[in-house]
TrEMBL record:
Residue ranges constituting the OLD protein-like TOPRIM domain according to the UniProt record: 525-589
Region Disordered: start-end pairs: 248-269
Domain Endonuclease GajA/Old nuclease/RecF-like AAA: from-to ranges: 1-50, 256-469
Protein name, per record: ATP-dependent endonuclease
Length: 771
């Protein structure tokens, strides 16, 4: 048995989203404010409501007007002495829900007997809806109207006070501004939500399940007469543990240290983690067994010895007290005794220390040196702390050691769901990679779990770290994407893309992209936009151009990838699925009309491009004349239904240049980034002294002969030139900031900035709104 997916509706930014879960580790990725935390919080709210109660802002904002109108209708019905609609129908479309879909084998049906929809069901997919809804609409109406009546009385009193203060003024002045709770139903629920709402479970019909449409889930509609399942249908079925993102830094925690919270969430010290683990799984005083005999005898002997010494030490003091008349003949006499607990040995600041490596000097062995817990690096403290929490989650689920002693022992739940938010906090890059590779193995490190599909562990991790993402396969990644207000709802919401479906059956492409992204450590899954560049010169110079000339663009979250025109098209499927705004800076790569030999660009001679991106992606042609004459629109690929996603290509186009010492403008046709940069800055490179390509370009400009001749010399030099060395030579020049950015790149960057400005607003006012 395992959780196939959850469908979350009307919860924060998740208006209607399906989140597929891997059978092992699932990783939530996406840019800031894309809904990852909303998804994690929704699972915590619905599956661990006692430790993570709902609040009013968990209701999606676009539904607030509906609830405000509902409260106003109650007040209007009261004023008109009409019957009030106290059915669930007006509420259903606004209530937060989580549909939990399980895959259940035939032999596991006894675990889900309360969820089986029909007697004909024989295993497979099974669903249950958890809905956060009013407990008693009659009582909610009564309390709300009572609060409204009190508020109206307060406002009437304020008006009366003005009349008393100004009896002769006509008309009466308005009273001072007064806001009295509740102003509307939402305001009322902001203080009384938990008192009037609860989670109820309903059986779903697998036959009515439909696939998402444009990444938006389509949860099945429940009949209004549906009755909730009695009791908690998930009790004994799923054990949920979580590590919140803050882990005690600035976040209010419940402080409830029960079995599902093996370490107090407000504590971040390793010694606290160890002490809690010891108390729950190792303490010999809790349900002792023969293995604890030696420890218990040692504690007893120490306690007797300490008692004897204390009695001797306090004899004189008690005798002095007796001289004052106490105790009398009938008064009880004081005695001192001890009660030693093994856990007290961990209850001090030095309970955990770190040994320092030492070496012998002149044959003399150095004494063992130790540093206190606080002196170790915060990253390693956090790693060890989280590993201990995962161990404690596993052992609490499996009832390891003392956790199995005492009380009523229930059977082990077949599902263990562990939620970890942002494990990268305070972890170094290498440690982040270690954690994500080892975390699931820690959760399964138990003899009864090895090779056991009847007891499933599913780990869900949300992250902003590319180091974490690159250690996880595409099949386990779930990408959260922001959708602007106006595209789906009146407010910004999120959608979730299952990246296991990106490449289909094209294993070669997936293998290439996976290995490439791991090598690049790019922030593709967390950026607002991407720039794909041709080679090392663009990779080094483009960021510096952006810093020098495009300050607004420099403040945006953009990832830059060097991938080359022959491979950039392999990212097409991934870019399309992510809906990631992308600029591709590439080269013409011209060939003769036979498509065989590489040649210098020229018009009207039927040249072809060897650039796979231009041929198969954007704009989708290999004809060089068409590419050189193409309007801007021809270089952009977009989707009508998604106004914030587009891909634009930027490549060399004809330039009008004036050579040094001449007045007549000429047309130049650059072949690649380097000669395009030179043609835009002829005076700069003519005066630049250096070696390699810099020297050859300078010599070509000095030799002259026209733009075509200079272009041919640079074309020949670039065939065997060191482009990365050229870029480094350019970067270190004093006049770098005065360089003119090649026009084709400048046009692309200006387009990208304009698109990002639209994306930043997150509002599409001309789009028909669907709620």
């Amino acid at each position: 048995m395992h959780i196939e997916f959850v469908e979350i509706a009307n919860f924060r930014k998740l208006l209607s989203a399906r989140v597929d879960l891997s059978t092992t580790t699932t990783l939530f990725v996406g840019a800031n404010n894309s809904g990852k935390t909303s998804a994690m919080l929704a699972m915590r709210r619905f599956l661990s409501p006692r430790r993570c109660p709902f609040e009013i802002h968990d209701l999606t904002l676009c539904h607030w007007p509906n609830l405000i109108t509902l409260g106003e209708s109650w007040i209007a019905a009261r004023d008109a002495d009409e019957v009030v609609d106290l059915t669930i129908a007006p509420w259903v479309s606004s209530l937060p829900t989580l549909d939990l879909w399980l895959h259940v084998e035939t032999g596991e049906m006894h675990h889900v007997r309360d969820l089986i929809p029909t007697l004909d069901w024989e295993g497979g997919r099974l669903g249950v809806r958890l809905r956060y809804e009013p407990k008693d609409l009659g009582l909610l109406y009564k309390d709300f109207m009572g609060a409204v009546t009190d508020a109206e009385a307060m406002k009437a009193a304020a008006i009366a006070a003005v009349a008393v203060e100004h009896p002769d003024v006509d008309p009466q002045p308005d009273p001072p501004k007064l806001t009295v709770w509740p102003t509307n139903l939402i305001d009322f629920l902001s203080k009384r939500l938990s008192a009037h709402f609860t989670i109820r479970a309903y059986t779903l019909d697998p036959a009515l399940l439909v696939d998402p449409v444009k990444s938006q889930a389509q949860p099945q509609a429940l009949p209004l007469a549906s009755l909730p399942i009695e009791g908690d249908p998930l009790k004994g079925l799923i054990r949920v543990h979580d590590i919140p993102a803050q882990r005690g830094f600035g976040e209010e925690q419940s402080g409830d240290d029960d079995d599902d919270t093996p370490v107090s969430a407000s504590s971040n010290r390793l010694s606290d983690q160890l002490r809690s683990y010891y108390a729950k799984h190792l303490d010999p005083t809790k349900g002792p067994d023969p293995k604890d005999l030696g420890a218990l005898q040692a504690i007893e002997a120490a306690q007797d010895a300490f008692d004897k010494r204390l009695t001797e030490s306090f004899t004189a003091a008690f005798s002095e007290v007796e001289g004052m008349g106490y105790p009398g003949v009938t008064d009880p006499r004081p005695r001192v005794s001890t009660r030693l607990k093994a856990i007290d040995g961990l209850n001090h600041s030095a309970a955990v220390s770190f040994e320092v490596d030492v070496i012998a000097e002149d044959g003399v062995t150095m004494p063992l040196l130790r540093l206190p817990e606080a002196n170790n690096g915060l990253g390693y403290q956090n790693l060890i702390s989280m590993i201990f929490r995962l161990m404690s989650f596993r052992d609490a689920w499996m009832r390891v050691g003392k956790a199995s002693k005492g009380g009523v022992i229930n059977s082990t739940e077949p599902l263990h769901l562990v939620l970890v938010e942002e494990p990268e906090a305070h972890l170094h890059a290498q440690v982040q990679q270690v954690f994500i590779k080892k975390a699931y193995a820690v959760l399964r490190a138990h003899d009864d779990l090895i090779g056991n599909d009847k007891l499933r562990t599913q780990l869900v991790v949300s992250t902003h770290s590319s180091h974490v993402a690159h250690e996880t396969s595409f099949a386990c990644l779930r990408y959260f994407r922001r959708l602007p207000a106006g595209m789906v709802a009146k407010v910004p919401v999120s959608t979730v893309i299952n990246l296991s479906e990106v490449f289909g059956t094209s294993n070669d492409t997936e293998r290439f992209v996976t290995r490439y992204l791991r090598a690049q450590h790019a922030d593709l899954f967390f950026a607002d936009a991407a720039i794909l560049v041709e080679g090392p010169a663009e990779r080094m110079l483009l960021p510096n151009f952006i810093r020098a000339h495009y300050d607004e663009l420099n403040q945006c979250y953009i990832t830059l990838l060097e991938i080359g025109g022959s491979h950039a098209h392999r990212l097409k499927s991934l870019i399309d699925h992510l809906g990631l705004l992308t600029l591709i800076v590439t080269d013409l790569d011209t060939l003769d009309k036979t498509g065989g030999a590489s040649v210098q660009p020229a018009m009207g001679v039927d040249q072809k491009t060897n650039n796979a991106t231009l041929k198969t992606w954007v704009p989708g042609t290999d004809d060089v004349d068409t590419l050189l004459d193409a309007p801007v629109a021809y270089k952009i690929q977009s989707q009508p239904e998604d106004q914030l996603f587009a891909v634009r290509v930027a490549y060399q186009t004809p330039l009008t240049v004036t050579l040094p010492g001449t007045d007549a403008p000429e047309i130049a046709l650059p072949y690649t980034f380097e000669d395009a940069l030179v043609f835009e800055n002829l005076a700069f490179f003519a005066a630049l002294k250096g070696t390699g390509l810099v020297r050859k370009f300078s010599d070509a400009i000095e030799a002259g002969g026209g733009a075509a001749a200079i272009g041919e010399q640079m074309y020949l030099a670039l065939k065997n030139g060191k482009k990365a060395e050229f870029a480094l030579d350019v970067i270190e020049t004093e006049g770098f900031k005065d360089l003119v950015v090649p026009r084709y790149i400048a046009e692309g960057l200006e387009w990208l900035l304009l698109q990002l400005k639209k994306k930043r607003v997150e509002i599409l006012p001309k789009v028909e709104v669907a709620v």
